[in-house]
Structure formats: structure tokens, C-alpha cells
Amino acid sequence: MPSRRIGPTLQVAIALIYRHGRYLITQRHLDDDLGGYWEFPGGKRKPGESWQRCLRREMQEELGVSPEKVQPFTTMRGRWKENRIFFKIFRCTLVYGDRPSPKAAQALRWVDPQGLLAYRFPPANQKLISQLIAESRALRGIATIATRDIVHLPVVGYNTVVYRRLPLRRGRS
Q1: Paired strand residues for 26
Q2: Which domains does the chain have, with CATH numbers?
Q3: What confidence tens digit (pLDDT) does each residue in 122-158 have?
Q4: Which of 49, 108, 154, 160 is the most exposed place for a label (fewest CB within 10 A)?
């Protein structure tokens, strides 16, 4: 039985662009690989290019926008055809006033985390989507839990949620 030849590892930067409780997603053109699938904006890193430079270039090429407040979020590994893929995922916002347009995509949408389940994403994105939904539920479900005079507020880290204890302000009665 012939063995499958594994090609090079592709490096891909992904942008989680968040605004008003929603993430920006784009739909691939029908004639592309995975045509019609939805994805988070991003693309392949060129040799010698920094991750952040790759992300900025891809967002300019795909959406005509500039990211700001770019922060590493997580990494993932996947496979597509004969290639391994290493994804580096960043959280970011857009420069004030930037309005994305689908330059290299057929459509774009702003979708809340739970709503991502209604869209067809490549299999490699499923773990990321589950993580975003879980994080959203944690923030929504445990927004404030008061016990005596301490309020516990969730603070989201790169892959964890930690709780910071803050004094509860009491109003005058």
C-alpha cells in the first residue's frame, strides 16, 4: 500500500475581529478550495514575514481594513489535502472608522459566538468555534456573582478564564 506523501507545513494567521459582541466572518468564493465555506479572515504567512505583518497584509488584501490591538489568542494544528497547517490566531479590533468589504471573499457577516454554529466552517475551525462559544457562555452566565461584599468578575485570558475579586460598592439607603 503506497504511503501518502505529506507536504510542507503551511503557516496561517487568523484574525478574530470582535465588535459589539460579534465576530467578523467571510465566505470563500465558490471556485476556491472549500468554496462556499465561511472562515475567519486571515491567510498564509510568507517566508521571513512576521506573524503580525502577515495578519495586517491579509486583512488589507481581503477586507481593506487595518487591525489594531492585535493580541495572540491561541494556536491550532490541522491538515488539508497533503499539507499540515499551523494556525496562529489573534484577537484584534479594527482601526476606528474602518469598514470591511469583501475584497477576496464572496460575503462577510458579523455573527455572535453561538450564531457561528449556523455557518459551514472548515473542520479545522470547529475547536476554535467551540472555544469562542464556551468563553461567551462563561462571560454571560457568570457576569456578576455577588457574595457578601465581594463581586467575582470573569477576566478572559488567552486560554483561560480567571476570576478577580473586587469590593462591592454599596449605595446609600
Answers
A1: 39, 108
A2: 9-121 (3.90.79.10)
A3: 988 899 999 999 998 887 665 444 444 444 444 444 4
A4: 160
